[in-house]
């Protein structure tokens, strides 16, 4: 029953997404209605996904984390979409904000699709690990896009913090290699969950450190380049584990 409810609510959220995009070109009232509707739907979706995660039982916490991460991705994408809709409201069709809106809508639909694939895979133990890894790869790609954007981070951190965060990548790499060797579903799921956090933390710390007041333009560019290269290298590793 959880799966049917998730499917039904996710479909409603896709409809809300369409209304949000079309709402940018219509009245403020319609836009407000679409935003309110999507907020209600995401709350419902989060509840049914949490029920689904609970129904797995506490002996499989890693798979529960995979499900919770999937709904978190959808919620974050919706928040970004609402922000993009606000920015594009009443703007002409060729305005850059309209392209941002279309990009945000695409990410939103991608994440809803990813959630549904994850829910389906959870029912089949043989594909759980593969699906978790695919979802993590997609998530890391999205995080890398945000990292590479010109958006300046809200706060900065020290270079030491950035160095500290690279330790998580080292641990996750060892775990990924072990999972590739064992090919056990639970090892692959644990790798997917750990990788997701390690790379996201590293990217955040790297960008915050690169904008520290004592950092020169040249050093910033190098730091951002190495952050990208590290992520691309890690994605390649995960792709190999997926192939294995």
TrEMBL record:
<feature type="domain" description="Talin IBS2B">
    <location>
        <begin position="7"/>
        <end position="119"/>
    </location>
</feature>
<dbReference type="GO" id="GO:0005737">
    <property type="term" value="C:cytoplasm"/>
</dbReference>
<protein>
    <submittedName>
        <fullName>TLN2 protein</fullName>
    </submittedName>
</protein>
<dbReference type="GO" id="GO:0030036">
    <property type="term" value="P:actin cytoskeleton organization"/>
</dbReference>
<dbReference type="InterPro" id="IPR054082">
    <property type="entry name" value="Talin_IBS2B"/>
</dbReference>
<dbReference type="GO" id="GO:0098609">
    <property type="term" value="P:cell-cell adhesion"/>
</dbReference>
<keyword id="KW-0963">Cytoplasm</keyword>
<dbReference type="InterPro" id="IPR036723">
    <property type="entry name" value="Alpha-catenin/vinculin-like_sf"/>
</dbReference>
<feature type="domain" description="Talin IBS2B">
    <location>
        <begin position="129"/>
        <end position="241"/>
    </location>
</feature>
<dbReference type="GO" id="GO:0005178">
    <property type="term" value="F:integrin binding"/>
</dbReference>
<dbReference type="GO" id="GO:0005886">
    <property type="term" value="C:plasma membrane"/>
</dbReference>
<dbReference type="GO" id="GO:0051015">
    <property type="term" value="F:actin filament binding"/>
</dbReference>
<dbReference type="GO" id="GO:0005925">
    <property type="term" value="C:focal adhesion"/>
</dbReference>
<dbReference type="Pfam" id="PF21896">
    <property type="entry name" value="Talin_IBS2B"/>
</dbReference>
């Amino acid at each position: 029953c959880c799966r049917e409810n998730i499917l039904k609510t996710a479909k409603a959220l896709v409809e809300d997404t369409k209304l949000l995009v079309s709402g940018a070109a219509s009245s403020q009232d319609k836009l407000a209605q679409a935003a309110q509707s999507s907020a209600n739907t995401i709350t419902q979706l989060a509840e049914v996904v949490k029920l689904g995660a609970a129904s797995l039982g506490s002996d499989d916490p890693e798979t529960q984390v995979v499900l919770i991460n999937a709904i978190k991705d959808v919620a974050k994408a919706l928040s970004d979409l609402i922000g993009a809709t606000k920015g594009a409201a009443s703007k002409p069709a060729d305005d850059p904000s309209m392209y941002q809106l279309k990009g945000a809508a695409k990410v939103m639909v991608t994440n809803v699709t990813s959630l549904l694939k994850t829910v389906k895979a959870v029912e089949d133990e043989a594909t759980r690990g593969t699906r978790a890894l695919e979802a993590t790869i997609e998530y890391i790609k999205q995080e890398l896009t945000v990292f590479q954007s010109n958006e300046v981070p809200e706060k900065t951190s020290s270079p030491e913090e950035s160095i500290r965060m690279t330790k998580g990548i080292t641990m996750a790499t060892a775990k990924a290699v072990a999972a590739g060797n064992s090919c056990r579903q639970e090892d692959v799921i644990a790798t997917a969950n750990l990788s997701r956090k390690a790379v996201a933390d590293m990217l955040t710390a790297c960008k915050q450190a690169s904008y520290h007041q004592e950092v020169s333009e040249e050093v910033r560019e190098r730091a951002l380049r190495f952050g990208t290269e590290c992520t691309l290298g890690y994605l390649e590793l995960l792709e190999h584990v997926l192939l294995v």
